Amino acid sequence: MDRIDYPKIILLSASSAQDFPENYQSAYHSHIYCERGSVNFIFNNMPFKCGKGEFIFWLADSKISELEFSSNFKATVFFVEKHLLTDNFPSLNIGIDAIVHHQINPILKPDKKNKDRILKNFKMLYQKSIENDNRFYKEILKLQMQLFLLEMWDIFIDQLERRERSPQSGTLYERFLYLVEANCMKNREVRFYSGELNITPKYLNQICKSNTGISASEWIQRYTKDRIVLLLNNKKLNISEIADEMGFSSRSFFTRYVKKVLGISPSEYRQQI
């Protein structure tokens, strides 16, 4: 399928979604810094609220609905064309935890130092995107995109590591999600997580259902599915290597699991991309 030529980078000030590009959900990865006011939204069927000093990160093709902006809302909004970002991962394995984390948790609450780093990162990438009279424009933009990703991943991973250093904080449901983020590459059974939390699998399912309406096994499958998709998109890894990376005893077991969560085999998925 031919790619449509959209602007690669958009940086703007916004007070509502009317200021966003019409196709932002499908064509762009969205980065929003809330300067004042707040915004409520449904993201992948979960409710969220972003307030002053917080960032929202929406990957392209995320399910976003019911956007509600406060009357005084103002934000710096940065859009990156989805192929420019995904085609230029410096190393998918480095950023996979950060990517998957923000497919489930789209809000970042940085300290002042990291807030300034992120905004500076926006401006640097935008500046390189408009300097298109350079004969090495494509190469420069690719390198700047990779620097952008490494800076952002460093901030995201730092946040994840701070959370992991305090695993006893939060509710049982929050602790369960922390454990799934950290362990789903190798552990995909509800019993493993209930054991880590010293509760029964049945009680863990009740907790998840009461908080989100989604069972523990479904949460584990969501996180695992996201990792599988990211790894399959990285064509530097063959299917057997991915199966081994995720702790499957054989490629055939991995293939059966992928068919269960994606509806098609790993080879068929790769043919589609």
Automatic annotation (TrEMBL):
Gene3D superfamilies with a match to the protein in the record: Homeodomain-like
Pfam entry (one): HTH_18
Annotated ranges, domain HTH araC/xylS-type: 174-272
Signal sequence region: none
Keywords from the named record: DNA-binding, Transcription, Transcription regulation
Alphabetical list of SUPFAM superfamilies matching this protein: Homeodomain-like
GO MF term set: DNA-binding transcription factor activity; sequence-specific DNA binding
Protein name: Transcriptional regulator, AraC family
Record lineage: Bacteria, Pseudomonadati, Bacteroidota, Flavobacteriia, Flavobacteriales
